[in-house]
Known about the structure:
mainly alpha
Amino acid sequence: xxxxxxxxxxxxxxxxxxxxxxxxxxxxxxxxxxxxxxxxxxxxxxxxxxxxxxxxxxxxxxxxxxxxxxxxxxxxxxxxxxxxxxxxxxxxxxxxxxxxxxxxxxxxxxxxxxxxxxxxxxxxxxxxxxxxxxxxxxxxxxxxxxxxxxxxxxxxxxxxxxxxxxxxxxxxxxxxxxxxxxxxxxxxxxxxxxxxxxxxxxxxxxxxxxxxxxxxxxxxxxxxxxxxxxxxxxxxxxxxxxxxxxxxxxxxxxxxxxxxxxxxxxxxxxxxxxxxxxxxxxxxxxxxxxxxxxxxxxxxxxxxxxxxxxxxxxxxxxxxxxxxxxxxxxxxxxxxxxxxxxxxxxxxxxxxxxxxxxxxxxxxxxxxxxxxxxxxxxxxxxxxxxxxxxxxxxxxxxxxxxxxxxxxxxxxxxxxxxxxxxxxxxxxxxxxxxxxxxxxxxxxxxxxxxxxxxxxxxxxxxxxxxxxxxxxxxxxxxxxxxxxxxxxxxxxxxxxxxxxxxxxxxxxxxxxxxxxxxxxxxxxxxxxxxxxxxxxxxxxxxxxxxxxxxxxxxxxxxxxxxxxxxxxxxxxxxxxxxxxxx
Length: 582
């Protein structure tokens, strides 16, 4: 009997070891040979299945158990949450509570994580109420999970209330609350909390520093970003590559490309994230040529580009309309095995579209196996950019059939497509659909598209109605769009209103004066045209010179009117007379 008992415990030990390293088939085989099983052995099998994502077998084992303890329920709930089956996790938690098994802290954390994934604030509050009843609310572990759940659900007041009443906090508490503010575009509050954190002498970690650096970037708060950078150096985290990349990203978001590049050059052992961050910064700040130069340097290193690298560099090609180089990069994407990446493929769609090759864009789009919202938006925007309005609308209907919900970017592409193709009634229909069916908040860009659409069609009475009843404050771009429409139809009164607001927002914008001059010209008011031009001269403003460019051997050369800064200007201008315009 002693020998049998010893043998049984040896098998339990072996089973535990095998399950721990996820050799589930071996664990099952050994489990079948056990002369008897207890709850602990069943739990290890559930945990093994759950950790490898085999939730079907984990559930079969769970359902077949003669008895279960809190570990049994928690293992399966955690598995469901970890692999995205959040609804199943919440259903199992409810069943657990009704069965009389008391959850532990790990159970509550996994359940709150599921609430956060589902953005279900009501269920998070129910779990919160249960945690109060069981006394777990005072636990830092559970309290941090509650803050995270509320923040992810957008309930920042509940999150902050939970944070403020914690008897003690750790660095995770601070990071979670700051991250919640940052994710909900409340960067100022995130920065204020960081200042409080430093005043309370809370020890920093890499997460807190990355969070506040990201916030500085989103706010373009360069001065504060530099202060955090100094803190990074003082605490020794500048040697951490992830933190270093966050500092570079912060500088690029603030437009400080010189500082970003200097830091990038100093980074020891730059990884692909560092390279990609720098390339993205160049592209977003209008230095696409520099992004291409950096990509060429990357190819001489041992660092391999990933799909996000290709996405950024294809964006540079799209900005510069470099179709031939874009095609070479397409070949490189295929050669590195990233052609199936949704990120790289969607960027290829955008590149081909912006370069005017809509057929290649459509071919790439059709080959994407698992299309996501970004893929659909890229193709819709591509059709809009090339004037294919009907195709854009058909694609939207196909997208809706796949149960992918459109967002504000989708409808911006649709409205733009309708505007370029003159589909006025369709544009009005989808504009109303945004508010009626999708509950999407309209931005100044959406209203600008509608003003352009209706203005092109000559429906100035509807344009005035939109301008007078907008629930948001118009930005400079919208006023400029309105001014352009007024210049076509000679609507002086509305044009003067648009010009006044545009000049107030951007006093150095010469387009406001030029467009207002066109409004007066369209109305035959030549004295007012002369007044506007004199006003421009008195304020030292000039209209932007005309620009053209050509691509030679994978490089784009830009020419401005009367520009002498180009290579070999004398030779170029000497050949002006030989140029034939077809």
